[in-house]
Amino acid sequence: MTEGKLSEDEIALYDRQIRLWGMAAQANMRSARVLLINLGAIGSEISKSIVLSGIGHLTILDGHRVTEEDLGSQFFVGSEDVGQWKLEAAKDRIQDLNPRVELKFDKQALHEKDEIFFQQFDLVVATEMKADEAIKVNKLTRKLNIPLYVAGSNGLFAYVFIDLIEFVSEDEKLRSIRPTVVGPVSSNRSIIEITTRKDEEDETKVYERIKTRNSYKSLEEVLCTATLKEKLTRRQLKRVTSILPLTLTLLQQELNEGSEKIGFELLNREAAAWCGKLGVPMAILNDEYMQQIINQRYIEFAPVAAIIGGTVAQDVINILGKRLSPLNNFIVFDGVTLDMPIFEF
Amino acid sequence: MARETNLIKIIGEDNFQKLRSSKCLLVGAGGIGSELLKDLILMEFGEIHIVDLDTIDLSNLNRQFLFRQKDIKQPKSTTAVKAVQHFNNSKLVPYQGNVMDTSTFPLHWFEQFDIIFNALDNLAARRYVNKMSQFLSLPLLESGTAGFDGYMQPIIPGQTECFECTKKETPKTFPVCTIRSTPSQPIHCIVWAKNFLFNQLFASDASENEEGNKDWGTDDAEEIKRIKQETNELHELQKIIISKDESRVPEILHKLFIQDINKLLAIENLWKTRTKPTPLSDSQISGSSKINKFDSNSVGTIHEQINHFIKITQKLMNRYATEQSHIDFDKDDADTLEFVVTAANIRSHIFNIPMKSVFDIKQIAGNIIPAIATTNAIIAGLSSLISLRVLNLLKYAPVSKFTDLNMTFTAKASNLSQNRYLSNPKLAPPNCNCPVCSRVSRGVIKLSPDQLKKIKLSDLISLIRDKYDYPEDISLLDASDQRLLADYDFEDLNGRTLSEVNLGNGSIILFSDEEGDTMVRKSIELYFDVNDAFPHDTCKLPDIRIPLVKSSETSTNGDEDEDNDVATTTDKQEDGGIVILDEDEGEIELATDPLDDSKKRSANLEGFGEPSSKRKKLTNESADSDIIELD
Question: Which GO terms describe its cellular component (chain A) (predicted)?
């Protein structure tokens, strides 16, 4: 990624965000190339946000035709588009958001895409994925050393998985009474360097520039080894949302043949097993949530898509702009309580 | 499969029908507003009314995704409605107007809605809509963002905290002497250039005479005298502007940047502990004709700043004549911005303060809050999502009490937490000292014009007393002009009709318990909605329950020692009662968004066990005085 100078027009257009992340981050974003897999409700939100933000290039891969159901959660398509290729219906509307962004629309099926195709991107975002597909994509992104985000929802309940493989981030913060120290801060994060600078206007303020190494695991590994034992206190374990074991159960079931239909009994049994692996009490599971996540499986709901899409897009922008520490590495969202914890696996 | 199939799986067929027949009000069609409009449409709300005063600006386009380059200068509300047509399935009604304009949006207009979504960018309108929601007992979803930070708070009148239950951040202010005599940071020079110099030279009626009892930030009589004198001399400078004589601009420079600085240097006390300023030299202020355009992101030399100052002052001189002797500072008016930039930078140079770029000064002078699409999308998503619970449309998550609902703050993005993306504390009950929602109950009384002429004041008193269980001893006031209508020893008007005592549509009366026991019935404010369309015998009091409360003398006791460790916020640290230059404090606010306060609160939540107890302590902040804030 090369840094070029921003034009006065760009500075005027991106004024309100440059004031947040600076000119250099904005210039970095302009040279980034991103692949978005599937343009559903979450995909629409992500493409909207990153196109508006002024990213360099976005390819959207989607081979679906517009259905009546899509109209209930997606804003790039209308009733006159039903039956058309979704990309054909949406492409002008997406380009219209920001003519400066180079867009490419690709209707080819994901399984026909090879390494060479993926190689052209700095980052991949995959939505509406079954776990088996996501793992395949993840194998490729790992091989090619490309950061990957996977996001999906089951009605009011949603998740984001992040695999940046290894990522060194730089944050700046005001030094508190207790200065930050070099060393591990959690299982996946470790501070490797701290430099300081004084505020140019107020000498008593000292800023710490903190370099953190973030390490990640593949989705396949997370589905095998995820646990919270020894990461959370007993009290914290008791308060873990049931959406976590339920989401992990659904993802793991997708690796099995004929996983489309999952009944209450099976979900209950498998989720209980996941509670054991995670180290959380089985009491966190409740029948109503289990029934709802079954009823609402694979449904995309506009407000949830906005929250999840906004979360993913923000992190994509942060790492492309090389600002702020990235998410690490599994987030679930409960649309009833608005609970949205981040777990490190 | 139809478009609503999935929604029905989430909320059920009957609740879907309820949603289709719901009417909501969206206040604001900007950053959060455009996102909310999209979400509410996709959630299949039956009818959405959108109010926005603003027109579209270039700097909106990085996030307000319904607007394009070609829409610049068009009204936001109508443009947004046009832009969503291809996916819209709701009845949309746009208004270009100010939601606080009572002639277009009287109280009874708000009454048609089931729920209000705030997507506002200023405190005044937030407060106003909050009040309307309290009057009508309409649920309000309040939200706001600033950069990566955002919050969303459901407000259920009478059940949960209202917008005013917590103290909002007060604007940052500076003592007069720092601005006028001893600047030490770029912002001091920017405030001087914008709020003082620009206004003195170009604002219509620049009267700076009432300087009687402001906080000067100094006791040095000599210095105060100098400041006052300087102000008078500035009126002389305005005469130069009025003269339209471009050749006299160097006189302005000479006065501001040589003469005034020399006078300051003469007050030796000021410079005992400070670096002395260096006035410009005569040769510096002569200027030159060669001028390059300013690059918005670089600073340039002092020489360039002076040349630009001369050029832009001449330009503004000519504008002043054509624009009826009145130019307001506007960050998007390049001329006024350039004047402030160059004046501030020249002053900074003199005081050995780093100069700043146009880009940076625009942010401070224009009070620009950074804004991005992603935070707005997240906050709007949360606001629309929680509306399902506020309207009780999720069967499997029924709401038995509204304090079980959650508000949210960005936690990770705001650097408050590494293990939560959002924090979601439960809603608190109303703060018993809140001047808006707790000290008085509110409601609307509906009357036909017939009844207004028929009902006697004594009838009205009996009706209210019986309906809400007030004791014998009460008082009744016309709240709009504080006119006493009745109390224990004033019953002269009791035999008159309501219209005879000048009550009518839009009147507000205040009815209070005057028994004086330790427990009293809370006061009620009633808004008169008189409408021809009501049946002729209509006289309907609102169906609300008015609680007994401790009488005000005893209500602020308790928790006092707890207050002390949290109540001292930053604005109290300095030598109390700082006052800014004077007029127009809104202009100098550095944080108009209530977010900072919310953030402070959520920051306090992190790492503490039970959010609600901590919250109570914080909300008591405003309890340490008995002041009732009146708008």
Answer: cytoplasm; SUMO activating enzyme complex
